Amino acid sequence: MADLIQRLVQELARLPGIGEKTATRLAMHIIRAPRQQIRDLAQSLVDATEKVGLCSVCTTLTETDPCRLCSDPRRDAQTICVVSQPSDVLAIERGGHFRGRYHVLHGVLSPLEGIGPDDLRIAELLRRLGPAATGGVEVTEVIIATAPIVEGEATAMYLARLVKPLGVKVSRIATGLPVGGDLEYTDQATIARALAGRSLL
Q1: For residue 40, how many C-alpha atoms fall within 13 Å in the half-sphere facing its CB?
Q2: Which of 4, 14, 31, 110 is the most buried if burial means most Cβ atoms within 10 Å?
Q3: Vertex 115 angle, CA 114 and 116, to 5°
Q4: Where are the beta strands (DSSP E) in 25-124?
Q5: Which CATH code is given to the segment(s) 61-200?
């Protein structure tokens, strides 16, 4: 295999969930694709990495700051749904059942991987729970929507211990989500049931 093709395969294989076979298949497709399509792909990669940053309010990925959801006056500012990744926001929004605001942790607690509270966006969440931080609107409920896996449950319990003393109701999404599953791959009906059936911690 040519050196340039091998390099392309190696770079593609570095992406999460992409093994060498898939990377080789993608590389062959890219090489045979129309040049303009590849230029568009390359430009979109550059644009995304240069123009997308974190929302200063909810810390999700966005082109504008604050993000579209934080800027929407129709969203319920009293309810914050805490998720582990930006992709979880997209998954919940696809269902169209939740009308509150979000907060993205960018991970979950995982001592085995060396991920502790300081590695997550927990301090930013706590700052949002004061009336002054939310434009005079007091947050009344925090819904914790981390995945129902060991790390997600540990993160939920940790957050509950921090938030409850602040006088804010803390709830957990119901177990309509499959144990060991991720929001990103869950269907809309299951997400809707999980949000509707959330329980207090």
Answers
A1: 5
A2: 110
A3: 110
A4: 53-54, 61-62, 76-83, 100-104
A5: 3.40.1360.10
How many Å apart are CA 119 and CA 117, to the nearest integer? Answer: 5
* Rounded CA separation 38/46 (Å): 12
- Residue 51: C-alpha distances to residues 81, 118, 143, 187 (Å): 25, 26, 30, 30
Q: What pTM value is reported for the model? A: 0.77
Locate the domains of the chain by residue range: 3-51, 61-200
Q: Write out pLDDT tens, residues 39-88.
A: 999 999 999 999 999 999 999 999 999 999 999 999 999 999 999 999 99
Identify the CATH class of 3-51: mainly alpha
Residue 173's nearest CA partner among 94, 79, 76 is 79
